[in-house]
Amino acid sequence: MLMQRRDHQERLSAGEERLRGLFVLALAGDADAYPSFLKELSSHLRAYLRKRLGGLPDEVEDLVQETLLAVHNQRHTYDVQQPLTAWVYAIAKFKLVDLLRRRAGREMLTDPLGDDRDLFSSADSDAAEARRDLAKLLDRLPDRQRLPIVHVKLEGRSVAETAALTGMSESAIKVGIHRGLKALAAKIRDDA
């Protein structure tokens, strides 16, 4: 058992060093190292994400591609003194969380109605009333505040996705959320 664990650790360490070496070469301008790095990293990411997306195998490849794109876009932030796989898996984890948030939001919107007799219970009508009240409050905000709140806070999209969707900068999205929530709180106090 101890020998198997040691062999496993050595394989992980060798894989880390190989990937890290290719990535460092690519960062230094070696054009041949980057495609090799991406190919090897893709197989590591597929294995990592398959374990975590057992019930969603169709999402694995899309998430691998999203993660590779994020690694590429953020390559300038990598500290060559640090382990590469920890940095890459942190990016993959954020992409996975974003996916699960998006799916949860979509699934909530598309949940089929069951045969529950309590479908229109007071809890459901209270929730529906709260959603209507929130929609009315949000409608009173300008788009630059309303849209960031709707997309980021209610739909679970990332700031970057919301910026791309609305054409606003990421900074404007963050400011819009902050100012919009502040304005909503003031409107709630005024209405109370």
Short description:
Helices cover 77% and strands 0% of the residues. It is an all-alpha fold.
What does this structure look like?
Helices cover 77% and strands 0% of the residues. The chain is mainly α. The protein is elongated and about 65 Å long. It has helices spanning 2-27, 33-52, 60-73, 84-110, 122-139, 143-154, 159-166, 170-191. Helix 3 (60-73) crosses helix 4 and helix 6 (143-154) packs across helix 7 (159-166). It has 2 domains: 2-109, Rna Polymerase Sigma Factor, Chain: A (Orthogonal Bundle); 128-191, Winged helix-like DNA-binding domain superfamily/Winged helix DNA-binding domain (Arc Repressor Mutant, subunit A), CATH 1.10.10.10.
How would you describe this structure in keywords?
192 residues, mainly alpha, Arc Repressor Mutant, subunit A, 2 domains, 77% helix
Give the tally of structural domains. 2
Q: Strand-residue fraction?
A: under 5%
Helix-strand sequence: HHHHHHHH
CATH superfamily (homologous) name of the largest domain: RNA polymerase sigma factor, region 2, helix turn helix motif
Count of helix runs? 8
CATH topology of the largest domain: Rna Polymerase Sigma Factor, Chain: A
| Radius of gyration, whole Å | 23 Å
Q: What would you say the CATH architecture of the largest domain is?
A: Orthogonal Bundle
